[in-house]
Design goal:
Blueprint: E1 5-11, E2 24-30, E3 38-48, E4 78-85, E5 95-98, E6 105-109, E7 122-123, H1 140-152, E8 160-163, H2 169-180, E9 184-189, H3 192-200, E10 206-209, H4 215-222, E11 227-232, H5 236-245, E12 246-254, H6 273-277, E13 281-284, H7 294-306, E14 314-318, H8 323-331, E15 338-342
Parallel strand pairs: 8-9, 8-11, 9-10, 11-12, 12-13, 14-15
Antiparallel strand pairs: 1-2, 3-4, 3-6, 3-15, 4-5, 5-7
Helix pairs in contact: 1-2, 1-7, 4-5
């Protein structure tokens, strides 16, 4: 029996600095009716991602997704079950992924909007893994880590790899994928406990809390021969340090810049000339440009999960009313691995 009402999360004010729970409200609406070419989906799992923070401001970076209007429903990747279909190729009972998250039900066009090329309405084969993994290691987080290493950084077996935000959804997977491919991996994280987890559970060669340390000095001590690949989830001081410790012809995959997401003024590297002096490659990317790697990534990552070689970290919140709390906790570094809301 499908309810006649559903709840969704809306933005009610733009954050003044750091995001607060009171910047959002959960409201109740009549159940949407799918139009021709749409399916009605009961959402079951919501992905909570750092990039949402940029869309809460009045302006977003040029070339990025548009801001969420005040009063508008939040957007993000979600997984759910089709309960009614008016679109060819979808039937009730199908498990699908789409971008109309932060609501319990959604009328989703079969040929509609995506998030930078990712997140089109897609049926999932959930016989191979738990459903929620398609938002984490087998979904956008896994694809981001995989593309950053394999395609953007052109990972080689002999590389020493530094991963920032190494206890996060993308960073934790990048650490493990690189390790499983035989690489020496260094991780930085936001607390001593997270650093210990990256080292002892995720298997990094070394890991440390980046607070109150000289990043370059610590890295020079850990890997005096330098770093070949830097997976940059942070930007700011981390990227500046990377430019000083990368070997000649080192490669940087620019994944994100969480250091400047949550109301913190952005800081660019003051030593950018090091990219010239050392013949470095810095390359940014959006995961939607690399969806051709999905099946290759899922085959490799799913096999590692099945044989116990890859550990899956998740922080799960329950119920749509917990979504604002999940967003705030994730942005403040209080979660481990992939942050999810079970709706």
């Amino acid at each position: 029996m499908v309810s006649e009402e559903y709840c969704e999360v809306r933005l009610i004010r733009r954050p003044a600095g750091r995001v607060e729970v009171d910047d959002f409200v959960v409201v109740t609406n009549p159940l949407p009716v799918p139009a021709a070419g749409e399916v009605l989906v009961r959402n079951t799992w919501q992905s909570v991602d750092p990039a949402l923070r940029m869309r809460l401001d009045e302006r977003t970076p040029r070339g990025y997704l548009p801001p969420i209007p005040v009063g508008g429903v939040l957007g993000g990747l979600a997984i759910g079950e089709v309960v009614e279909s008016r679109a060819s190729g979808f039937v009730p009972g199908d498990i699908v992924q789409h971008v109309h998250g932060y609501r319990e039900f959604a009328a989703v066009p079969a040929d509609g909007e995506t998030l930078g090329g990712a997140g089109a309405l897609t049926k999932l084969d959930v016989s191979v893994a738990p459903i929620r993994h398609f938002l984490g290691p087998l979904g956008s987080a896994g694809l981001t880590a995989y593309a950053a290493l394999v395609r953007i950084a052109e990972l080689r077996n002999s590389d020493t790899v530094w991963v920032s935000a190494a206890a996060g959804a993308v960073g934790g997977l990048a650490v493990q994928i690189a390790r499983l491919r035989g690489n020496r991996v260094i991780g930085t994280a936001g607390s001593p406990e997270k650093a210990a987890h990256v080292r002892d559970v995720l298997g990094a060669y070394a890991a440390f809390d980046y607070h109150d340390v000289d990043l370059v000095a610590v890295l020079d001590d850990l890997v005096p021969d330098g770093v070949d690949v830097y997976i940059d989830n942070v930007g700011g001081a981390h990227l500046e340090a990377a430019l000083n410790v990368l070997r000649p012809h080192g490669r940087v995959a620019l994944v994100g810049a969480v250091a400047a997401y949550d109301g913190i003024p952005p800081q660019g590297p003051a030593n950018l000339f090091q990219a010239v002096a050392r013949s470095l490659t810095l390359k940014g990317f959006r995961v939607g440009d690399h969806v051709d790697l999905v099946e290759q990534m899922r085959t490799e990552v799913a096999a590692h999960i099945a044989n116990g070689g890859l550990h899956v970290d998740e922080t799960i919140y329950r119920g749509i009313n917990s979504a604002p709390q999940a967003i705030v906790a994730m942005l403040r570094g209080e979660t481990l691995g992939k942050t999810l809301v079970e709706l």
